[in-house]
Protein: 2-C-methyl-D-erythritol 4-phosphate cytidylyltransferase
Amino acid sequence: MTAESDRLTSQPERLYAVVPCAGVGSRAGVEGPKQYHPVAGRPVVAHTLAALAAVRRLHGVMVVLSPDDDRFEAVAPAHPPGWAVRTGGASRADSVAAGIRALRERGAAPSDWVLVHDAARCLIQPAWVDALIDACLLDPVGGLLALPVADTLKQSDGGRAVSTVDRQGKWAAQTPQMFRLGVLADALDHVGSAVTDEASAIEAVGLSPRLVPGHFCNFKVTWPGDFALADQLLPSLAGQHGDMSR
Structure:
């Protein structure tokens, strides 16, 4: 091994976050993209980014916007310049892949970690992200925040329940989802744009992500009623990483 290769391999692995923020949120029932709808006095994505900014081990947070986004800088003025790109695609996977490319352009290595987090999971807390990092940093695959399914699951057909799905061993996936940059990039390239989360891509190439218990408050703002619930919950969570209601 040469001195140069020894220097490179001895460099500590860095951790980055990618926040896909290019969707329109058609199910949310609000005017405009849901990530810019106000909750507890601030746009949804502003809460998300403030929480991630408080995770000290993150080297940077890359936000992936739609090409025609003209609102981000106004609602997230504190976000570091150069850490938002307007290269979001038609699907979540396309936007995450674009975020990984942007990180590579800024010097991220294949061995670095990427934590992908939904812009619409605005109740995320730094402590929950740190718990994921602690659980996955030495894991050979990586993992994701998730919750064991507690409710009875029904298979529907035409708006009627036709069978009950066994909930044993079932988990509801959350984010962040944390994987090596190179492995995740290759997995996304392998499976294409149809996957709905990064763990699905990792599973498709034969790997098994670690399930790290999350928190019931870490839900994705999706339906109209979710905004009212987030509005009630955010103030009680705010003290965990500073005042998020300003």
User: Anything to note?
Assistant: The mean pLDDT is 90.
